[in-house]
Design a protein that fits this description.
Radius of gyration: 20 Å
Shape: globular
Number of helices: 11
Distance between the termini: 53 Å
Strand order of the largest sheet: 3-2-1-4-5-7-12
Mean pLDDT: 89
Number of strands: 15
Order of helices and strands: EHEHEHEHEEHEEHEEEHHEEHEEHH
Largest sheet: 7 strands, parallel
Helix content: 25-40%
């Protein structure tokens, strides 16, 4: 078949080899779409990369010309790029962060501007629930004014506003999904990101799990597989979601102390060692007010439009995370060592 005769939509995933990108790619590969996976050089999991009708592209998305070539001909672009390269850098402290977190959106919306009479491309962007800042109420539903506190959240909000501006101009059809704290390991991967993975690795190494507070701070946690299903739901309901941001979450804020103690128990079950202690330690200098602010997310607006809801309970999500990282520890112990 001539590719030009294939009427299935072309969905391009930017950041397809990342933590969330790998899970989204694994979800979308089962859909009746043509899939283009764009990475900076890391190969997506083999189960996805070797699937039929999957095109692999290597590109530096911070290069406007390379980005334009990578998304050319797309019907939908899933934008999962973020600068998350270290313990402090994920907060936007390093000088590359704005170029990645804001600049790529600026270049993307320019590259996708249609010819006169052309159809706008749908862009599904991964924002962050924390963009709202320190909401007066611990439960948020997306109607709150945005007052981001940290550099990373300010950059995510700036990118979202660029997408909204381009949508109002008719250049793209923009949708922002604001993500909660995402846990788990993506399909075909042995690594993960975030505080749950970091504390699981500490427990597997026999080290205490540490937290910067008394354990009562709450977080809304979702497994990466449920996040991937939300992106697929946004793809299915794009015309109903365009033009605004939508919150994803479980609807429950879980005390991190309880979460960490459960991690210690799950690790102990697998290693046969006693559970490691969960300790309160002094926060580092780079800690922000948001680190001590509880949050739970009302995702009923997104659920009402798409029918999406999480399939995994928190305990199931924690078990999957611990199991994946434990297998990695057994298979490659040197790779499981937590960073100092």
């Amino acid at each position: 078949m001539n590719p030009s005769d294939d009427k299935r939509p072309l969905v391009t995933v930017l950041g397809a080899s990342g933590f969330i990108g790998s899970a989204v790619a694994a979800e979308l590969v089962r859909r009746p779409v043509r899939l283009r996976l764009v990475t900076r050089g890391h190969r997506p999991p083999a189960a996805v990369a070797d699937a039929k009708d999957v095109e692999l592209r290597t590109a530096d998305a911070t290069d406007p010309a390379a980005l334009a070539a990578a998304v050319a001909g797309s019907d939908v672009v899933v934008h999962l790029l973020a600068h998350l390269s270290g313990d402090i850098n994920w907060r936007g402290a390093d000088p590359v962060a704005e170029r990645v977190n804001v600049g790529t959106m600026r270049h993307l919306t320019a590259a996708l501007r249609p010819e006169p009479g052309g159809r706008p491309v749908t862009v599904i962007y991964a924002g962050a629930a924390s963009q709202v800042g320190l909401s007066a109420a611990p439960r948020i539903d997306g109607s709150e004014p945005d007052e981001p506190q940290g550099a990373y959240d300010r950059q995510k909000l700036a990118a979202q506003r660029l997408l909204e501006q381009a949508t109002r101009a008719g250049d793209v059809h923009g949708i922002t999904l604001r993500l909660p704290t995402v846990i788990g390991c993506a399909p075909g991967r042995t690594t993960s990101k975030g505080v749950v993975a970091a504390m699981t690795k500490r427990a597997l190494a026999g080290e205490p799990i540490t937290m910067w507070h008394d354990g009562t701070v709450r977080r809304d946690l979702l497994h990466v597989d449920d996040i991937a299903r939300a992106f697929a739901a946004a793809l299915d309901h794009g015309h109903e979601l365009v033009g605004r941001h939508w919150l994803l979450g479980s609807g429950h804020g879980e005390p991190l102390g309880a979460v960490f103690r459960r991690i210690a128990e799950l690790v102990a079950d697998r290693t046969g060692r006693p559970p490691v202690p969960v300790l309160t330690v002094d926060p580092p200098e780079y800690a922000e007010l948001g680190d001590f602010h509880s949050i739970e997310i009302d995702a009923s607006a997104f659920r009402g439009v798409t029918g999406w809801q999480p399939r995994l309970t928190l305990d199931q999500a924690l078990e999957r995370t611990v199991d994946a990282l434990y297998r990695h520890t057994v298979e490659a112990p040197e790779a499981a060592e937590p960073r100092s």
